[in-house]
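User: Can you predict the 3D structure for this chain?
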Amino acid sequence: MKENKILIETKDLKKYYPVPRKKIFEKKRYVKAVDGLNLKIPKGCTYGLVGESGCGKSTVGQVLAGIYSATDGKVFYEGEALCDLSKEKKKKIRRKIQMIFQDPYSSLNPKKKIGWILEEPLKTGAHLNKAERKNKVTEVLKQVGLEESYVNKYPNELSGGQRQRVSIAAALLLEPEFIIADEAVSALDVSVQAQILNLLRKLQRERNLTYLFISHNLNVVQFMSDYIGVMYLGHLVECGTTKEICDHPLHPYTKALLSSVVDVHDRGKKRILLEGEVPDPVQTPLGCPFHTRCSQKKECCNNEKPEWRMENENHAVWCHNLRGEK
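Assistant: Here is the predicted structure, written as structure tokens:
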């Protein structure tokens, strides 16, 4: 990937979840949700993270947001490793990282009015008096396209799109620099999706925001993203600019994903169907994690982990099949 100023970077990031033992002396096992992820997100850009359900993309967002701690590896913010910072400085940086969740209704307290929901974070995250907090809430609501009267409404009185606008407003309250949008539009109608996506792009321009946009919808990712990373079974298998990934996919998994995108201008496009299911993340295959479903696998794919190959400064792939090719 071409180097711009990097806001967020991960090095060998791992997140394992322990599996309950069925027997007393059974060996401890783990779900390897994220297994050695190296990611670079340039400042002011949108990085799209795509892959099938269960590939670990949402876990990446939750670790970056500080919801979960990493099992191993490091997360860097503007070159500083978060694990090496003091508690106070880490807390200050965490305020600059906010998250928009998939289900706006579940992320809002149904027993509280919108005004209370939005004002509460300002009581601990900003040094504002009551009048200043109320003005801040009103200001942010207007920025996401909602009137001041919405402070007196409950979440169940709002539509799905309006609730997601409130969630976006909540993410903006502490003046973040980095926002993680985890399937932020997947629960919305198509017409409302377009409105929310345009709102996110508008806010990015106005506030110079950096996004990690997590989604399984490749049409949406192509529309939103400057860069794309493709995940499979906890691993990043291909990354690069949106143009490089969409116009010249290299990894067999990326090609299969892109072949599933509906394109009214290319009716003759051949669909690549993957056989089999995603392997058990508790017992990940040796070698390349994709080899059990890959029609182009070689003998080395069964036992050897691939190495990253740079196609150019904007495109990299993790695959044995392309090793040594020009």
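The radius of gyration is 21 Å. The first strand starts at residue 6 and ends at 19.
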